[in-house]
Amino acid sequence: MPDHTPRELYLDDLSIGDEFVSAEHLLDAEQIIAFATEFDPQPFHIDSEAAKTTFFQGLAASGWHVTAITMRLLVRSLPFASGLIGAGANVTWPKPTRPGDILHVRSRIVSITPSRSKPDRAIVQTHSLTYAQDGQVRQDLTAQLLAFKRKTN
Predict the structure, then answer these.
(1) Domain, as residue range, for 96
(2) Fewer beta carbons below 10 Å: N end or C end of the chain?
């Protein structure tokens, strides 16, 4: 899947219903173990053999690792001019992410709420689903992002 990186996006460029698709990321066991060893050292994330006897019945990526990969993909596919500045989020992981999964993200603008006190900005709610190659959702993320209008001279 090609990376559909648009130009930098300002609030003026965004509309409810706009959709964005990221590039892909191939996840392997080495990445899963390296991330988890440093940030989420649980047996089902760092030890393939021990993981077989856990709830996940095999090596599974940390949800926080999937979130970090999603963020990387979002930065490229949803390039807000001032960056992706979070103002809150809700995230779930409906299925485990495994070695060999090829992840990509599909995002949609759900709402745009202009600031009442600062007319140069708004909160943009996005819904981003991180899919694996099998078409199944691995992460469901709803985020509130700060977006700014283009500066006028």
Answers:
(1) 11-27+63-148
(2) C
CA-nearest of 108, 116, 114, 113 to 141 is 108
Rounded mean pLDDT of the chain? Answer: 94
pLDDT at position 153: 65
- pLDDT of 2 strictly over 50: no
What average pLDDT does this structure show over 4-24? 89
What stretches of 24-120 adopt beta strand conformation (E)? 25-26, 85-92, 102-114
- Whether 92 is covered by a domain: the verdict is yes
Residue 38 within any structural domain of the chain:
no
Q: For residue 139, what are its two tokens?
A: 């992460």
The pLDDT tens digits of the residues spanning 133-149 come to 999 999 999 999 999 99
Orientation of helix 29-39 relative to helix 63-77, angle to 10°: 110
Contacts of 98 by beta carbon, 8 Å cutoff, 6+ apart: 27, 58, 59, 60, 61
How many structural domains comprise the chain? 1
**Residue 100: how many other CB atoms lie within 10 Å:** 11
Contacts of 48 (CB under 8 A, 6+ apart): 29, 58, 59
